[in-house]
């Protein structure tokens, strides 16, 4: 395949707007996968169990298709991208290997927060954008335009005209360029293929130049080691070639090379313009540096502009429910993080929870997904602590990044040794129907939002439906890693969409809150809080603890403290009765059974100071919001 007949593109969209469904249809239409039940959602590219279950795409996948069009045979390389805000790093990474993008917008939902962010990323990268309006024609589709005009739509809530106008006003897209489709039924998807060939430029580069390959993704295979996805910028890459990395200067032998069709198909070579996989004798995935440029050993080239490494924004401790499982858990975490390069891992130990690992994630969904993968793929029984963001503590003589509340200086130390404490802030973008604006602004303020601003998404000529508003503000990241997103969804009846980007650090009045059971601190429960909110937060957590901690043989005071100051307190009353007291008559078997049950329960207890805490209590404390 010479460059002229190659097209590299990705599908970009807000979550649930239909990327994976459209990818399936494109693969079917080109005969890459077989067509079975029309409308069935195969989601071929969503390979992970967690992706199928949650219907979200976590890891970007690549697939090649072969398509005949007007007498020529084309090679179309599709790179599917995740839609969730936590994975925007993956989105921009996959875009770097493309010349064009299908911007998919759900006709029932309209432009959403991530539609905006992915559009801007694609435009910054200079990609040709093909606007596609999805969920429009489920039946009897003849022409996209007549369909839009007659409003023949597959979902009653679809508003193709209005959404097309939105795309015009927010993205400057010519309504003539919009392709209306139904990814579900496949209606008009042929027009998308045609547009990919006609509108997206072929990749630049030439096979006769020196080899230059851009490494944009890597995964780890238990048997073959590191598998990398590359986009060949120039030259040809053959099996058996000796290559070198611009980043590490290490040399490797290519042991296998091929395309994703949609599974790996060995081709023996990749030419300029193509996208495919390589296997070489790379032992650790840390050697596959995302954004690296590979070249023929001894024939150096100018490296491509690299990538900022992914930044961990949310940290949490992961501990085994049974402390004997630590080695197994650590092994599983290590193996799983090989397939997800954006996770950072460190050891951590806690007096309450024992030996564990402290992990850094891109966001809370990322954390959730990792937890589920750990449970699914490694059968792990784990406790995950409350998430923390990385704080910057500026001491008089040094700066420390603190991603574990245990390491945060106490109030006294803050007063004496610390100049200021800064927390990460983000620029948040929320799109919401006007009716909910007041409610959502209140929510933002209660989460310490500043610099609130808003503008209208729809043209001012108000339609019968309520206009949509784009709300922007600056918020502490710590405010959105807990339950902000859930609240936003429920307070807007599910209509609000949300995205955020890094906005640096900001000084704030923050302190460490600790919890004491029977006057002994429980390290795994420590939190960093804003001083204005310490009483409220203390109360919420003390109540939560009061609810889940079983009563003991003695009274247990539960306290939340900031420095020496107790900000909230509640007492757990003592358990009086003997467990066997009710079993009068002393039926021996019954009594034994009861004592056994009690022993079983004891085994699962963690002793915190003098208080016995069942692991489920920790689990409940950590997972309740
Ligand atoms: P993604 O998150 O962008 O990958 O979205 P999916 O492809 O997983 O689709 C999200 C949901 O929308 C799924 O339940 C699909 O079945 C549904 N969907 C996708 N395309 C269409 C369409 O054209 N019409 C209708 N009615 N539903 C669709
Ligand atoms: Mg998907």
From TrEMBL:
Recorded GO CC terms: mitochondrial inner membrane; mitochondrial matrix
Binding-site residues, GTP: 13-20, 80-84
InterPro entries, per database record: EF-4, EFG_III/V, EFG_V-like, EFTu-like_2, G_TR_CS, LepA_C_sf, LepA_CTD, LepA_IV
MF terms (GO), sorted A to Z: GTP binding; GTPase activity; mitochondrial ribosome binding
Gene3D superfamilies, per database record: 3.30.70.240, Elongation factor 4, C-terminal domain, Elongation Factor G (Translational Gtpase), domain 3, P-loop containing nucleotide triphosphate hydrolases, Translation factors
Gene Ontology biological process terms in this record: positive regulation of translation; translation
Domain Tr-type G: 4-204
Subcellular location: Mitochondrion inner membrane
Keyword Membrane carried by entry: yes
Reaction catalysed by this enzyme: GTP + H2O = GDP + phosphate + H(+)
Keywords: GTP-binding, Hydrolase, Membrane, Mitochondrion, Mitochondrion inner membrane, Nucleotide-binding, Protein biosynthesis
Superkingdom, natural source: Eukaryota
Membrane topology of this protein: Peripheral membrane protein
Family: Belongs to the GTP-binding elongation factor family. LepA subfamily.
Role, per record: Promotes mitochondrial protein synthesis. May act as a fidelity factor of the translation reaction, by catalyzing a one-codon backward translocation of tRNAs on improperly translocated ribosomes. Binds to mitochondrial ribosomes in a GTP-dependent manner.
NCBIfam families, alphabetized: lepA, small_GTP
Name recorded for this polypeptide: Tr-type G domain-containing protein
Species whose genome carries this gene: Dentipellis fragilis
